[in-house]
Each structure stands twice: as structure tokens, then as C-alpha cells.
UniProtKB/TrEMBL annotation:
Organism expressing this protein natively: Neopipo cinnamomea
Name this protein carries in UniProt: Two pore channel protein 2
Signal peptide span: none
Domain Ion transport: 55-278, 398-639
This protein's UniProt keywords: Calcium, Calcium channel, Calcium transport, Endosome, Glycoprotein, Ion channel, Ion transport, Lysosome, Membrane, Repeat, Transmembrane, Transmembrane helix, Transport, Voltage-gated channel
Reactions mediated catalytically: Na(+)(in) = Na(+)(out); Ca(2+)(in) = Ca(2+)(out)
């Protein structure tokens, strides 16, 4: 009947509004059962279970053979890692696959058959799941003894397909590839030409003493290409030119030209191209997200206008305010936005809303409220009012910054004076006395600010919370020091007592005091701009960090399979990497690590044996060339946007919200 239809329209409007809030597509089933399933799928509990499942299946690599869960990564000293019995990790993996199977089934059902064939990500999801299940069956049939497990490399895909932002970022990289390819091709030509020149310039001569450059770096084409490729990353600079430079200073011209053309021109040109493409992508992404939001809100309006209670005599479609209130009560959205929309609805004198009025109400979703600080206490006493004015004035904060600077300088002076002294010769009286004085000042400053501003207003400022927390910690440490070692006095060098020695406690206090000096940042506008840009970057970095995890994980698993057993411990000597019977490369102490840590070291490029070069060059291209430049592009985009806002800042006294590109993008 009419009541059932009205309930369906209300539920459809609720789902469309939630789609608009989350920038989701409205192309999905909208019958009553599908709507219930849709809301259940996108509920916090369901999404949390899916995220936990992805985390678990990625974490399995740390306990599967070859496991890296040991205290030390040094192959000479570590104990054998725990090797789980066959079937344990496979059982956990099967449970994860079942969750993914339910996930892909629900997604496929909700979007419908027509949309399914258009969705390449969903088809890739099914293909990845099928291959992983087939590989899982092969593992069990071989009793977990097979060395190649394809499904381990495919695991990051489950993380990738679950994030719309990561998919958008990949689209950005894909759109940038044609322009990047031209510069990479130019780099390849640059590298090839200089390789040819190097082989001709440093050819073998009759004098073996003069052939050090040829022997070490330019013996053949692969070695020459590798030497110059590493020079392009500056990892072997200036080692690669030292033998030739020792022979004749003029040889340095060759290496200078190579570095200038490659590093200063071509690599920076690549950064400029990636930034230009990525900046356009950011704007397109914001436009696409806003369009989805407007579309979801308009869809909600259309279904609400079809309610039976809507007047049929109206010349244009309209929605009753009562129906909208029902939708807002059911929809999951930010309480501030909901209250703001309800307030605007009450202020509206009309009972029916047009499409334009309906859309305008939901502009509140695009707004970010500026936190209003609680009011300061109102004192009746004239003396208290003067105190409030004095200690609430910005100059009182500047005085605190000067005192903090004096504290830092005094600590530096003491550290310089005691740098070469033995612990038994050190007198901690002066350092302990100045710490006591400054901590008492910090405590007094905090109490006076609370008196002037009130506790609630004081705590509403992040800088005050930072100051107050460190002051309380410093006070507790200082009281603990006095309780264990007594008050500072000349020759204050007590023996070790308690959990920490006196010097350890004093050092901890001094480190916190140095950290507290960061309070000056909000008072320095340009420094504050840089810091807020970095903080905004961290907020917007989830998609980039996710793809970085995907790339690290895939390369780490591939590296484990390719180079398993390549690092051979030789007692207490350093380790070597072997190819056949030949020692290829000495592996330094910092290089004795597995998987992900190894790749972190290789961001600066350390190349080993010939066939391994392909793997590491691919890693360098993806991580250092493409990904680092994308990170620079995001950093520039955030900084330029902040700088433009700072230079053309409007007064915020008359408005209660900010609309930012970063917020919409996030």
C-alpha cells in the first residue's frame, strides 16, 4: 500500500544521503532488501571486519616460512625463527578468503549485472581471489613445501581494491605515465650515450696501474651502464670518478656533465611533469567527488518528492520538511552537520522545499566548523581583572618563549662543558639547579594562564595542552629525582639507585625541555605555515601510504623468493652475497636485514649481482623516481594552497566554517 511505498522512499532517501556524505556512487540496487544489505555492508562493524581481515592476511608473511620474526636481523647471531606447522597459517588464510568471497559477492549483487561488467576492479578482485584459492590448494597438496607461492604477491591487491582513494591515486599515476615515459626515454638515451663515451674514454691500456677505472667501473657494457645508473642516483659519487681523477683532472669534466644533465635537468624535469599532471588530477578528483555528492542529494530529493503526502497540485517537485526530518533521524552523519541542517529547517517558514532549497540545506556537508573557544572567566575584583589582562596578554606568552630559549641555551652550555668528562668527574649540581628553576617557572606560567583564561579555555588550545602535559611530566620527574637523590648540591653525584640513574633522569628531563621549545612554532608565522602543511600532508597521506605499503610488500615478498639463502653467515665475519662460486658483493652490517627493511636501505640504491640488478632497478624506478616525485607533488600542492590562502586570507570573524580543497579531497 501507500504506507509501504512511503517507507521504501524514505529508506532510499536515507541511503542516497549517506552515499552523498561518503562520495559513493548511487548506481546500486534500491529495493527494500538490497537497501538493508547495502547499509549493513557499509556499516562500521562490517567495514572494520573487512579491514581486520586485510591486516591479518598481510601480516601472515611475518610468520610464514621464511619467517623474519626474530629479535635481531643479523644472520650470524639470530636464533631460528618460529616455523608454524603446515595448515595453521593456511587455515587463517582460508578464513580470510571466505571473508573476501562474501565481500565480492555482496558487492557484485548490490551493483547489479550491468554495472558488474563495467567494473574492472571487481573483475580483477574475483580473478585474484580465484588464483589465490588455486595456489592455496596447491600448497596443501605439496604439504606446504613448495617454494613459490603466487598468492603471497597478490595479497596487497586486497588492500588496494578496498580503498577508493588508492584507486584514484593509481589512476593519477596511470595518466602521468605517457608524459613520464618521454622523460624516462630521454634519461635512457642520456645514460646510453654517456656509457658509450665512458667505455671509449676509459678503455683498457697496456699499463695495468692506470686501468683502475676500467677494472672497477667500466670493464664491460653491463658494468658501465650500472656504474653510471648508480651515479645518476649519486649513491657512488665521488667514488666512481676517483681513479680517473687521480690519473688526470680533466676526466672530471665527463662526470660533471653527466651529473648536471641527468640530475639537475632531466630528473627535475620529471618532477615538474609529475607535479603538473598530479595537480590536475587533484582538481578533477575534487570535482568528481562533489558531483557524486550533488547527485546523491538530488536523488534523495527525487524519491522524497514521490511520497504520497506530497501535494499533487504543485507545479514543480517539492519535498515536505517532515519527510526530510524523518530521513535525517535515520541517516548516519556527523552530529554537527545534522544539527545545523535541522536548525536551518526550523528557520525556514515554508512546509515544502524546492530542489534548490533542498540542495542548499545540504551544503553544510561541505563546511568545516572552526572550533569556538570557551569564554574566559569574568572576575568582579578589579585586581583580578588586571591579573587576567596581564597574564592573558600575548606578551606573557612571548616571555615564556624567551625563558624556554634561555633554558635551551643553558642546557647547551652545560653539555658543551661536560662533553669530555667521565661520569665520575661530572658535577650535576648546576644542571639540576637550573632545571629546578625553569620547571618551577613553567609550573607558575601554566597556573597563571589557567587563572587568566579559565581551565576550559586553556585546554581548548592545542599549544596549551602540549605545554601543560610536558610541564606536569617534568614536575613528576623532578619530584621523583628529589625523592630518590635529594636536592641538588655541589658534588651532586649519587650512586645508581632505582629504575634510572641520576644522569638518565636529568637527561630525560632535558630532552623533554628541548621538546617543549617547539611551543614557539605557532608564534612564527612562516614556521607555523610549514608545520601545518606537514600536518595536513599526514592527514592526506593515507592513500599514498597505502600504495607504498602495497609496493613495499610486493617487492619484499618477491625479493624473499628470489634471494632466499643468498646471505651466508661466516661466523663473526661480515656476510657475503654469492652467485655460483663467486663472491659478488660485500654486505655491510646495515644491509643484513630482510624484506621491507632491505628495501628501505635500497631507496638510496645499492646494486648487487647482475641478474639482481633488474629487480633493484625496477624498485628504484618505482620508489625513488615515481613515488618520491608523487610525494613531492602532494607536498607542493598542500604548501601552495596554504600559501595562497595565507596571502589572500579573508576575515574569519563573520563566518563559522572553512571550505578547503584538502577537506573535500580527504
Amino acid at each position: 500500500g501507500a504506507g509501504a511505498d512511503n517507507d521504501l522512499y524514505i529508506n532510499q532517501a536515507v541511503v542516497f544521503i549517506e552515499d552523498a556524505i561518503q562520495y559513493r556512487s548511487i548506481n546500486h540496487r534500491v529495493d527494500s532488501k538490497s537497501l538493508w544489505l547495502y547499509r549493513w555492508y557499509y556499516s562500521r562493524t562490517c567495514q572494520w571486519i573487512l579491514s581486520l581481515t586485510i591486516t591479518i592476511i598481510l601480516a601472515l608473511a611475518f610468520v610464514e616460512e621464511p619467517s623474519s620474526l626474530t629479535v635481531t636481523s643479523d644472520v650470524r647471531y639470530r636464533l631460528p625463527a618460529w616455523n608454524p606447522p603446515c595448515g595453521l597459517t593456511e587455515s587463517v588464510e582460508l578464513l580470510c578468503f571466505l571473508v573476501f568471497l562474501v565481500d565480492v559477492s555482496v558487492k557484485s549483487y548490490l551493483i547489479g549485472w550491468k554495472e558488474f561488467w563495467k567494473n574492472t576492479w571487481l573483475m580483477a578482485y574475483i580473478l585474484t581471489l580465484t588464483v589465490s584459492l588455486a595456489d592455496w590448494i596447491v600448497s596443501l597438496s605439496f604439504s606446504c613445501t613448495e617454494s613459490l607461492r603466487i598468492r603471497r604477491i597478490l595479497r596487497p591487491f586486497f588492500l588496494l581494491q578496498n580503498s577508493s582513494m588508492m584507486k584514484k591515486t593509481l589512476k593519477s599515476i596511470n595518466s602521468t605515465l605517457p608524459e613520464m615515459a618521454s622523460v624516462v626515454l630521454l634519461l635512457a638515451v642520456h645514460l646510453s650515450l654517456f656509457t658509450m663515451f665512458a667505455m671509449l674514454l676509459f678503455a683498457r691500456t697496456k699499463d695495468n696501474q692506470q686501468d683502475k677505472e676500467w677494472v672497477v667501473y667500466f670493464r664491460n657494457l653491463p658494468d658501465s651502464l650500472t656504474s653510471l645508473l648508480v651515479l645518476l642516483t649519486t649513491a657512488n659519487n665521488p667514488d666512481v670518478m676517483i681513479p680517473a681523477y687521480s690519473k688526470n683532472r680533466a676526466y672530471s669534466i665527463f662526470f660533471i656533465l653527466f651529473t648536471v644533465l641527468g640530475n639537475l635537468f632531466l630528473m627535475n624535469l620529471l618532477t615538474a611533469i609529475i607535479y603538473n599532471q598530479f595537480r590536475g588530477y587533484l582538481l578533477k578528483s575534487v570535482q568528481s567527488s562533489l558531483f557524486r555528492r550533488r547527485l546523491g542529494i538530488r536523488a534523495a530529493f527525487e524519491v522524497l518528492s514521490a511520497l504520497k503526502e506530497t501535494p499533487g497540485s504543485a507545479q514543480q517537485s517539492c519535498v515536505s520538511t517532515g519527510a526530510l526530518q524523518q530521513v535525517l533521524q535515520k541517516a548516519e552523519m556527523d552530529s554537527r552537520c545534522k544539527q545545523a541542517i535541522l536548525r536551518s529547517l526550523k528557520m525556514c517558514s515554508c512546509d515544502q522545499l524546492s530542489a534548490a532549497q533542498f540542495q542548499k540545506l545540504f551544503e553544510e556537508l561541505d563546511k568545516e566548523s572552526i572550533k569556538q573557544h570557551p569564554p574566559s572567566p569574568e572576575y568582579q575584583s578589579h585586581f583580578m581583572q588586571k591579573l587576567q589582562f596581564a597574564f592573558g596578554h600575548p606578551y606573557f606568552g612571548y616571555l615564556g618563549n624567551v625563558v624556554a630559549l634561555a633554558n635551551i641555551i643553558s642546557i647547551c652550555v652545560v653539555l658543551v662543558m661536560d662533553a669530555d668528562k667521565q661520569p665520575s668527574e661530572r658535577d650535576d649540581f648546576f644542571l639540576g639547579a637550573i632545571n629546578c628553576f625553569f620547571i618551577l617557572y613553567y609550573l607558575l606560567e601554566m597556573l597563571l594562564k589557567i587563572l587568566a583564561m579559565g581551565l576550559r579555555r586553556y585546554l581548548s588550545y592545542p599549544s596549551n595542552r602540549f605545554d601543560g602535559l610536558l610541564t606536569v611530566i617534568l614536575l613528576i620527574l623532578e619530584i621523583s629525582t628529589f625523592a630518590v637523590y635529594g636536592f641538588p648540591h655541589p658534588g651532586w653525584r649519587p650512586e645508581f639507585m632505582g629504575l634510572l640513574s641520576l644522569w638518565d633522569m636529568v637527561r630525560l628531563v632535558n630532552m623533554l625541555i628541548v621538546f617543549r621549545f617547539l611551543r614557539i612554532i605557532p608564534n612564527m608565522k612562516f614556521m607555523a605555515l610549514v608545520v601545518t602543511t606537514l600536518l595536513d600532508l599526514v592527514k592526506n597521506l593515507r592513500a599514498f601510504a597505502g600504495i607504498l605499503v602495497v609496493v613495499f610488500y610486493a617487492f619484499a615478498i618477491t625479493g624473499i623468493m628470489l634471494f632466499k639463502g643468498a646471505v651466508v653467515p661466516l661466523g663473526n665475519t661480515s656476510c657475503f652475497i654469492f652467485q655460483g662460486k663467486n663472491v659478488i658483493s660485500w654486505c655491510s652490517a646495515h644491509f643484513q636485514a630482510e624484506g621491507i627493511y632491505c628495501l628501505l636501505c635500497l631507496l638510496s640504491v645499492n646494486l648487487i649481482c647482475r641478474w639482481a640488478k633488474i629487480y633493484f632497478v625496477a624498485w628504484w624506478l618505482i620508489s625513488s623516481v615515481i613515488w618520491v616525485n608523487l610525494f613531492v607533488a602532494l607536498l607542493l600542492e598542500n604548501f601552495i594552497h596554504k600559501w595562497d590562502r595565507r596571502c589572500h586570507r579573508e576575515s574569519l570573524s563573520d563566518i563559522e566554517y572553512q571550505r578547503t580543497v584538502e577537506l573535500m579531497f580527504r
